[in-house]
Amino acid sequence: MWKPDRDLPAWDARFKFMTGLLKPGDPIDYVVTYLEMETRPTAPVPPRPVNQNIALIRAQDPPPEYFLYLYKSVGEAHEWTDWFAKSEDEVKGFVGNPKVLLYSLMLDGWPGGFFMLDSRDAGTCDLAYFGLVPQAVGRGLGRWFLATAVETGWDQPGTEKMTVNTNTLDHPRALGLYQKAGFVPVERVEATRNLTRERRIN
Q1: pLDDT at position 184, please?
Q2: For residues 52 and 139, what is the distance between their CA atoms, to the nearest angstrom?
Q3: Contact, 130 vs 137, CB < 8 A?
């Protein structure tokens, strides 16, 4: 039998609980973890993966559109949407700052991932973005790629510590990967946002 309209919100909540499926526009709680690394790792960078056609290339004066393409390709499934809400001038100001570096991981001739290093705060190099596109996940690149990003960050003049943050909407292995690389959690913050795409929560 059809339920009256007043019952729809309760039924919708029960449906989401049973299926674990949230829709675009639904609020979701998440936790942001901030991590720091105060000394350069002493362990050598893992060897570059064998039998992989890869190249790591620093972008010279990258156009904002290229950054947004990588940002979306890596982060779309993890609700990386903040930069799409910013003005064109804000994006240009970030990407074009000489203390912000963008490195592309080229895999078989196409961008398989990227990382960005932000040294605008004196003494601190922030690993602002890091990740692989979905098609590159599972090919044994993550540990080497992250260690290379960390080494590159410590190579920047004036670096006294490195920082990074991740949250529970990111890849479930992200936090553990950062900790294995030498980052230490220093703060956790609870937050809420509205989803931009469907997401399963169980």
Answers
A1: 98
A2: 9
A3: no
What whole-number distance in Å separates Cα of residue 106 and Cα of residue 57?
7
Per-residue model confidence (pLDDT) at position 20: 77
* Stretches in the chain below the pLDDT threshold 70: 1-19, 202
**Residue 115 class from Cβ within 10 Å (0-12 exposed, 13-18 middle, 19+ buried)?**
buried
Are the CB atoms for 153 and 125 separated by under 8 Å?
yes
Instruction: Provide CB contacts within 8 A for 65, sequence distance 6+.
Output: none
Nearest to 130 by CA among 162, 94, 158, 165: 165
Nearest to 103 by CA among 134, 132, 140: 132
Contact 162, 37 (CB under 8 A): yes
Write out the two tokens for 77: 């499934």
Note the Cα 182 to chain centre separation in Å.
17
**Pair of tokens at residue 75:** 């982060």
pLDDT of residue 197: 82
Burial track 9-36 (b if 16+ CB lie within 10 A, e otherwise)? eeeeeeeeeeeeebeeeeeeeeeebbbb
Q: What gap in Å lies between CA 83 and CA 72, rounded to an integer?
A: 10
